[in-house]
Amino acid sequence: MLKEYKSVTEVVGPLMVVEGVSGVEYEELVDIELQTGERRRGRVIEIERDKAMVQIFEGSTGINLQDTKVRFLGHPLELGVSPDMIGRVFDGLGNPIDDGPKIIPEAKIDINGTAINPVSRDYPSEFIQTGISTIDGLNTLVRGQKLPIFSGAGLPHNNVAAQIARQAKVLGKDDKFAVVFTAMGITFEEAQFFIDDFKETGAIDRAVLFMNLADDPAIERLATPKMALTCAEYLAFELGMHVLVIMTDMTNYAEALREVSAARKEVPGRRGYPGYLYTDLAGIYERAGKIKGRDGSITQIPILTMPEDDITHPIPDLTGYITEGQIILSKELYKQGIEPPINAIPSLSRLKDKGIGEGKTREDHSGTMNQIYAAYTSGKEAKELSVILGESALSEADKAFAKFADAFEKEYVNQGYYSNRSIEETLNTGWDLLRIIPRTELKRIDDKLIDKYLTEKSEVEVEQKNLTKKAVNKSIEEIDKQRAEQSKASARATLNDIKGQDPVSQDRK
């Protein structure tokens, strides 16, 4: 039988101190009954002798120290999992909020998870197609990878997140693919945008959504990504699915962590964040990966807004250390109306070389990726130089690179939020743009690939144009001939009519 305590001695923010406890464990779930009969939940975050510090999920408003009853439930916070979770929407604590039936769980799993043994980890090596050229072509996402998106205030990272959730898939496999989408600290309007977008496009049929709104307690925000990852682990390692986890916004999660840390009166670290911010973020990010002998996998795309667009801020800085690269959104491109505004130059996927090439994407992927990146960089430098020295100071090659940079942004990057490009379309678009550059400047692609994808294709296009031109000319000649014959026949008929009606002609006859 559970013990009931009425020894609450202190309440500070979302924290509550209970004295005289025994047999209580770290992370244990707590049931709190207020004097009004209302029930709230919490978890033990610190134990010192006979004192336990409890983190209250719903907040501490209205708690009376004398009349509050506390019960320690003997198990950590758990999520009831089932295949029926796919297609459903939950709050940050795993409760359904879509007016659907309650989930009948097949199992209840501790949301804190268990660390993946490094020896049992399988190396990420399979390409995931997002349908976004800047990611697929230049910063490839690999199954089992964690690739964050760094955004800024006012940038459309929500649109990018929704686009990836709609379009992402593993090529060449019949395996089941699912998306676990979790939002932390977002507004009601943003939450409704995601829900409506998923339902209208049909993406909800393969997705599980966890929504924590801005007015929800900060403590719930700390549990939300763990809930989502617990669901992802069940789908991946129990049901054998390939799961893509999209988490937005990790900055709101870190802010909630700082708020709780301040309430605990801990010594602050950089910019007021707790010293264990790195460890806490690593505990979330490292739950991605593949396990040898298991069919499923978890791939993560955390999304965070950089405070004051500062990439050296603790949140993006530590995230960059833990994860395998970053996709960076650009305000400059956004102002130009480019969708999605992904800046290719500072973006990086450290595992992109492992998921591309013959048998995965295409044999020319690596070469075109390197050449496009080098050409775009050279083009941006040439444009900056022309601003200082004038366009006349540029060489012909520099002018070609500058032209390439403009075309790259307008045709390659600017594809829209509802354009789902296959990897073949992305690679072919890259070759079309590389025609702007003189062949002598294509130094990062093998000559055999240039002959195959650039020269031969060009000859085919010329031949097609010639055939089209001949067909058009032939059609014009036939039409002219037909018109001439019709004109002659019409003239003869008119002349015969005139002769038949002329009285002088009749007299002569």
UniProtKB/TrEMBL annotation:
The keyword Nucleus does not apply. Residues 354-453 form the ATP synthase A/B type C-terminal domain. Residues 483-509 are annotated as: Disordered. GO terms for biological process: proton motive force-driven plasma membrane ATP synthesis. One of its GO terms (molecular function) is hydrolase activity. It comes from Peptoniphilus indolicus ATCC 29427. It comes from the Bacteria. Keywords: ATP synthesis, Hydrogen ion transport, Hydrolase, Ion transport, Transport. Produces ATP from ADP in the presence of a proton gradient across the membrane. The V-type beta chain is a regulatory subunit. Residues 131-349 form the ATPase F1/V1/A1 complex alpha/beta subunit nucleotide-binding domain. Signal peptide: none annotated. Residues 8-74 form the ATPase F1/V1/A1 complex alpha/beta subunit N-terminal domain. Pfam families: ATP-synt_ab, ATP-synt_ab_N, ATP-synt_VA_C. HAMAP family: ATP_synth_B_arch. GO terms for cellular component: proton-transporting ATP synthase complex. InterPro entries: ATP-synt_VA_C (IPR055190), ATPase_a/bsu_AS (IPR020003), ATPase_F1/V1/A1_a/bsu_N (IPR004100), ATPase_F1/V1/A1_a/bsu_N_sf (IPR036121), ATPase_F1/V1/A1_a/bsu_nucl-bd (IPR000194), P-loop_NTPase (IPR027417), V-ATPase_su_B/beta (IPR022879). This is V-type ATP synthase beta chain. SUPFAM superfamilies: N-terminal domain of alpha and beta subunits of F1 ATP synthase, P-loop containing nucleoside triphosphate hydrolases. The keyword Ion transport applies. Belongs to the ATPase alpha/beta chains family. NCBIfam families: PRK04196.1 (NF003235).
